[in-house]
Write a structure and sequence with these properties.
- By secondary structure, this protein is of the alpha+beta class.
- The protein has a single domain, classed as Jelly Rolls (Sandwich).
- 23% of the residues lie in helices and 33% in strands.
- The chain has three helices and seven strands, in the order ββαββααβββ.
- The strands form two sheets. The protein has a four-stranded antiparallel β-sheet with strand order 1-7-3-5, with helices on one face. Strands 2-6-4 form a three-stranded antiparallel β-sheet, with helices on both faces.
- The chain starts with a strand and ends with a strand.
- The relative contact order is 0.39.
- It binds zinc ion.
- The site of zinc ion has 4 residues, from loops.
């Protein structure tokens, strides 16, 4: 397993990690790559990375789908992050990407892998594992 380390800069921020995931498995042989986020207020997804506006639209849409002004029950002192847990689970904690025989990620032309921060800025980890 490889561990990527990220420093996020905003509360909600989709970070394109496609290149880092590809580099983490360079030369590997296997059926697929599992990308897993071990956090409760961050997730991972695959979507268009050709136009950076798509990532910004995800950030805005998720803030609207799970808004801050809701009678949330999960309240931690000094850290009211209930909606960020919901946004994280909407994206999910993992994705699986098929690996080609040459070791490259079998993503579609427009697809990229995004780390999804919802409670930043923070230092985060992403686990990258080749599945045989
Ligand atoms: Zn919390």
């Amino acid at each position: 397993m490889h561990e990527l380390r990220l420093q996020t800069e905003r509360q909600s921020q989709l970070v394109d990690i496609t290149r880092q995931v590809q580099e983490a498995v360079a030369g590997a042989r296997g059926a697929a790559v599992l990308v897993y986020v071990p956090h409760t207020t961050a997730g991972v997804t695959i979507n268009e990375h050709a136009d950076p506006a798509v990532a910004r639209d995800f950030e805005a849409a998720l803030e609207r789908i799970a808004p801050a002004d809701w009678p949330w029950q999960h309240v931690e002192e000094g850290e009211e992050n209930a909606p960020t847990h919901i946004r994280a689970s909407l994206m999910g904690p993992s994705v699986v990407i098929p690996l080609r025989e040459d070791g490259t990620l079998a993503l579609g032309t427009w697809q990229g892998v995004f780390f999804c921060e919802f409670d930043g800025p923070r230092t985060r980890s992403v686990h990258v594992t080749v599945v045989q």
